[in-house]
Amino acid sequence: MTTTQSTSASWKGGLKRLTRTRARCKPATFMLARERLRSEAESLLREFPERYASSGIHRFVELDRDRRESVTRLEEKRRRRNELTAVRAKPDPETIAEMKRLKEEIRGLEENVEARESELAAAERSIPNAPHATVPRGKDESANRLERTWGQPRAFDFPPQPHWDLGPALGILDFERGVKIAGARFTVLRGAAARLSRALGAFMLDLHTREHGYEEILPPVLTNAESLFGTGQLPKFEDDLFKTREGLYLISTAEIPVTNLHRDEILREDALPIRYAAMTSCFRSEAGAAGRDTRGMIRQHQFDKVELVAFAKPESSYEIHEALTRHAEEVLRRLELPYRVVTLSTGDMGFNPAKTYDLEVWLPGLNEYKEISSCSNFEDFQARRASIRFRRAEGEKPEYLHTLNGSGLAIGRTLVAVLENYQQADGSVEIPAALRPYFGGDRIPRP
RNA sequence: GGAGGAGUGGCCGAGCGGUUUAAGGCGGUGGUCUUGAAAACCACUGUGCCCGAGAGGGUACCGGGGGUUCGAAUCCCUCCUCCUCCGCCA
Predict the structure, then answer these.
(1) Rounded-to-5 percentages of helix, strand, coil across chain A
(2) Which residue, A46, A275, A391, A419, could crosslink A214 as a Cys pair with Cβ 3.0–4.6 Å?
């Protein structure tokens, strides 16, 4: 009993850090705060035309005004109805007549408000997050800013092979059978590649949990529509997802289940920041990517990834963003893989983030830097959609917190990077020193 | 998968058509008392939205959605979740 008690006490204590509150009303469906959109619509449009010109921001302003007008009228009718009901006895015929009238009026106004609300929500969903002041402005990736470069691309005294030649030659990447058993963009890892993939995952998780302070999470890889809406994959990017007949979706990133861990919750201030690391398989339909990266295993329908997710107080989220990015970089440093860090411009950035750093690893076989991690601060954009808040002190108003995430790292692409960067003249591959204890060997020999 | 049962505020728990603007208790916050603390007593105690410069006022929310009614936590439909038993399964 003593043992049981102490165990359950610490378990409860752990839970108690995060005050759970059931959602008791419709979740906020907006992304940028409505107050902010009302007051800043004009300036957002003026400052970031590349981001807002084609969004529903004009429509929002108009609909928002209409809706509030209708709500005010509706609430006046309801107030009157409550006044009449408060008598708490059988009402007289006149009162019943008035209440019947009110009933019709209320029903009409309710329908009106509901219709406007859903139009408004649709308009809001098309408005992307506002970029942080430090984000470079520009229409596309040509405006991205190089932050730093680490490591020197190795000088080869033989022509380095791309992984799609190297892997099959070593007998560890089987592209043909991947196609046979599943289809294009599926690959079978065998022998040393399968083991290397497992070693990379374990190495990354150990680094982040033991040295960087992340809690390891193993979440479901199927989630419901609410979760996808919370992190912004729905409704805009449904085509990128695989959907089951039961209405569940295969996750495209662990960001989805892990960020939604705290959906509809109010956290305690002293629980923040929260950092989670999760390794999952990720599934992407790559609907819009026909013809891109078709060779090799750069762009797959299924791949494994270690994802870092953080929940932070607004005033410290940019600090956390820098730290999270460094944590992802540390993986590349320990593996001694050359990389660079780039800040995405306002035109190249995704819909949801306020700021994104891309980590690009050097791939000698492809002779280019390739994205291997994307570290973003969403500020309160996701938190509003998913209703994730925190309270600074007992009795104070809950505030939306900031969410962040980044790959730490994409395992498939890291595996490619190891193969291509560590290949030897004789066709074998050396294993990076940091990985040897996990891999259980120092090289992949030529068969 | 089959058969039952249950979901009410931070927690426990009453209420089952109109004195409920959700009883009572626990917890929490503030206060009285006290050298201090405990006890006792008093007050307060959620979230969204609307109006308002503010003070404040209004409205909605009793698992989700829909319906019946002049009026719904309470009646009906439906979905979800949890519990018990049976079956199946890594």
Answers:
(1) 45, 20, 35
(2) A275
